[in-house]
Structure formats: C-alpha cells, structure tokens
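FAQ
Q: What does a multi-component entry look like?
A: The components come first, one per line:
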Amino acid sequence: MQKRKTNSLWSHNMLTGKKILIGITGGIAAYKIPTLVRLLKKAGAEVQILFSPMAHEFITPLTLSTLSGNPVLTDFHNPETGEWNSHVELGMWADIFLVAPVTASTMGKMVNGIADNLLVTTYLSAKCPVLLAPAMDMDMYKHPSTKANVDKLKEFGHVIIEPKEGELASGLCGEGRMEEPEEIFKIILDQLKKKAELKNKTALITAGPTYEAIDPVRFIGNHSSGLMGYSIAEELASRGAKVILISGPTHLNIEHSNIKLIRVESADEMYDVAVENFSASDVAIMSAAVADYKPVKAAPKKIKKTTKTPEIKLITTPDILAELGKQKTKDQLLIGFALETDNELENAGKKLKNKNLDFIVLNSLKDKGAGFRHATNKVTIIDKDQKIEKFELKSKKEVAVDIVDKLVGLLAS
Ligand code: CTP
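Then the predicted structure of the entire assembly, as tokens:
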C-alpha cells in the first residue's frame, strides 16, 4: 500500500497573507473541517469560520475558534458585545470562500438567493472564488432537485468538490461522502494558484453583437447575447489578468476591479477600440458576432413607409480579427471564434490560418444548446498545430474555463 506523504502537502508560509473563509453547514462531515483548518493554519493562512445555525448540532464552535484563532460567526450581530458581523466585509475579505460540508438545503438557498442566515448572506456578497463540498446521503444527492441546484451552482462559476463514493453516515454505501480534508486543501492551493496565473497579463475581449444603423431607429444586428465573451472576461479577471472588454449592445453588465468595460454599437466603433488597445495586450479573444455588412449610409431621419419597395445598399464592415492577425507580434496570442452551420472543421481551420490565429473556438449551430441565445455551448478548439479538442455541452461559464485553460497552457509553453 502506498503511504500518504503528508509533509509534501504543505510548507510553512506557503499561504501567508491568504484569507480563507470556511462556511460549515449542518452535516456530519463537519467533523473533517478541524483537520483542514489545521493544515491551512500550519501553511500560514488566516482562517475565519462561519456556521449555519444547524452546524452547531454537529461540531462545537469552541473547537473551530481554538484552531482558527478567530471566533466562529453565526449571527448577524454578537449579542454579548452588540457588534455587527458584516456579511459584505466578510465577503470582500476572503481570497477563497469554501462551504464544507454544504447541505442540500444550503445549496437550494444559494441558488435561489434565500439569505436567511449569515452564511448565505455572506455567500451572496462574496467576490472571491467559491468552492462547495456537498455531503449528504446518496439518494438526496441523486435527487433531481439537488442535481439541478449543483448544475446551477456550476453555471454560476463555482467549483463543486464532488462527493466520493463510500460508506455514508446512514450506513448505506454510495456517492455522498465529503472529500477528505487533505484533498480539499490541495484544491484550495490550486485555486489560489489559478487566481494569480495571469497576473501582469492584459487581455482584450470583444463580445456581443454589433448594430449597424439603417436610420435612427432601425439597425442590422444579430441574436448574440454576449454571454460567452462576458464569461471569458470574468474568468480571465478571476485569474489575475487586466481585462479590456469591448462589448456590443447587450443587457449584460459586469463589475470586477480587473475589468474595464467599453460599450460600443457598431463594427466600426468596435474596430477602433480594439485596434487602439491591441498593442498593449498580451492576448486578444474576439468572441463578438460582428455584423459583416452595414448600410452604406445611415439615413439621418426615420425612413417613412412608401408604396415602393425600399432598397438598402450594403458594404462590408472591417474585419477586426483579421486586422489584429496582421498586427500580431510573436509575443501576443490571438484567439477567434467561428460559428458555422456546415463543413465546420474545414471552415474553422481556414479562418484560423487566414486570420493568423493561435487557436479558434468553433461552435456549430447544428449542435443543440450551442451558439446564440443559450446559457450553454458546445465547442471544439482547433489550434495552429491542427490539434482538435472536442468538448461536451456545458454552461458558457465552464466553456470559458476550458478556453482560458487552453490559453494559459499556450502562455506557459
Ligand atoms: N470577426 C471580426 N470582425 C468582423 C467579423 C468577424 O472580428 N467584421 C471575428 C469574430 O469575432 C470571430 C471571427 O471573426 O472571432 C469569425 O467570425 P465569423 O462571422 O464566424 O466569420 P467571418 O470571418 O465573418 O466569416 P463568415 O461570416 O463568412 O463565416
């Protein structure tokens, strides 16, 4: 049998200055958290524990306040001192927010924004990566309600530390056992590493549609929601990159200290802002669905209805991606998208070459749940060595993680 080398897990001070917020909810797996807290403290992290009201039934606050060196917080205010425990400050303080064990009930509250305790309220305020380690009986974990909530939490961009198969507190055997504290510790280390992966890098993203004016009230546009590009921007920013997000008209908004959002309307405006910012960027990802044509001239006044069939003369818009491909230096990475309906791989391969890209993200309108107007996407990544990677249908947030992982791999090589 292989011996576990506990010493290789951590070294002193490797987490100095890191702030780890741990929420504990009412599950028997709470007994594993003291071991995790010890590992984190030994590695130099600051640890703050939050209890859901039910957590008290499974573990004592005294154990965890002793190990963490901080009082355990459960209530919005401390009845003894009268002090207010600010969920907003806690949410901003943390570098990582882990909820372990997280029960089916708390996941349901998180998904639906039911902020009836300090833990869920803090979750809603958290700006940092959120890690969730579910633990429950296997039938509860398999229930469609739990599955739907887990999927939704993944869609929100949270890391789900999947429970393992094994003997459960109920005496049954199956999926539902919370991951071991040593493994959770490693996952926290990986997340913290990820957070700094793109520090000192600047990324330029285009997202959403463009609107090409026909007259003051009408335009040529498309169904792009911008969600794919916004998700990529968020993922890059969460890994420490400085992001310039150039967005066509969408209902989306984004607030992140690393993201500068520049809103534009037309392909010409998007082109100007992209070209202006490209030379200072290390990577550029063009996910916008830029209109290929625009009216030669937008009418200055609303075009009135007449008996004659109107004709609108169109000309091509500038190809932003192709222009950046021409300007690209050997130190920059350029990534494009291709939305195809047929001969997908061949067409995407041509775009990759013609526009001088490092890789291209192909989505096909033939795939159900891919492309415009879906929260999901199914992509294939083709790189300039013609390596083809096909991904499953997933939330656009998860696709963004795959794209950024690929990019980080290229930057490292
Ligand atoms: N693109 C761009 N500027 C344009 C048109 C497209 O930057 N004027 C970028 C898109 O953001 C995307 C890629 O080019 O990253 C591919 O867009 P797509 O519309 O699929 O390809 P086109 O080159 O326009 O070719 P076609 O419409 O013929 O498929």
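Q: Is there any commentary attached?
A: Sometimes. For this entry: Residues 1-7 have pLDDT under 50 and may be disordered.
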